[in-house]
Amino acid sequence: MTDKITLTIDEQTVAVAPGTTILKAAGQIGIEIPTICFHDYCTSYGVCRICVVEVEGSRTLVPACIGKASEGMKVHTRTKRVETSRRTILEMLASSVDLSEAPGIQEYMTDYQANTQRFPEARERKPSVLDDNSLFIRDYAKCILCWRCVQVCADDAQYAYAINFSKRGYETQIGTFFEKSLPATTCVFCGQCIGVCPTNALKPKREYLLQNGLSEDEIMKLTRSQRKRRTRRQISSAEQSEEE
Questions:
Q1: Which of 92, 117, 150, 173 is least surrounded by CB atoms within 10 angstroms?
Q2: By C-alpha distance, which of 161, 208, 167, 169 is closest to 186?
Q3: Residues in CB range of 129: below 8 A, 6 or more apart
Q4: Answer CATH for 136-213 from 2.40.320.10, 3.40.50.720, 3.30.70.20, 3.40.190.10
């Protein structure tokens, strides 16, 4: 069994270990392929399809984050077909999701000359901001369903399994089982979901309140008030359990 396989990417030759993805192979020779759902510390599933490339002999475009390099493979990362696909994906995202706090995606918009007004009749996703805990808020109007938060909450990191996809079709969004508040789930408030979110759909509560005009003193008063209410609920719950 050979230790390396050789392929060409944009006319450049690269030798990689068997099992290496096209994305990683391209990175070894300095070729950048755009990614959104991909994260170095999350399992790749090729959800967003922004990383598609053209492989000679393949009928369809191949997602580079999960497509494996093979001996003699010839890959093209910026053909007209590839750029059209990426541009369309970006335009579709912009038509229904608030990307105002997703700088990485905005850079791709500029790079691929995406027309954010291409689908004027598209229905925007505008779910209400979920504010049910003292650590962070969930603004799913900014969520692109990349699945990163679900992955780190599950087998990729925390093994808490507090969140997953909920609903179907256009109404799909990230949610908790039975739509419970986060404190009522298995969430341990580790913050890893915030760290991997590419669009600020998950945002620290302090940052969110500052952006909405509250002062530091107001935030501290609010936080103390929330803690008191939580303590009262815990005492009430404990007393009820004793009575039972």
A1: 117
A2: 161
A3: 137, 138, 139, 141
A4: 3.30.70.20
**Residue 79 token pair:** 């053909």
Give the confidence band of 238 by pLDDT, cuts at 50, 70, 90.
very low
- Section 114-121 average pLDDT: 92
Q: What's the residue count for the chain?
A: 244
Residues 205-236 have pLDDT tens digits of 877 888 777 777 776 776 655 654 544 444 35
DSSP state letter for 221? H
φ and ψ of 84, to 5 deg: -65, -40
Q: What is the pTM of this model?
A: 0.83
Distance CA 216, CA 129 (A): 21
CATH number of 5-78: 3.10.20.740
Asked if residue 152 has pLDDT above 60, the reply is yes
Domain borders along the chain are: 5-78, 136-213
DSSP E strand stretches across 10-89: 12-16, 52-55, 62-63, 74-76
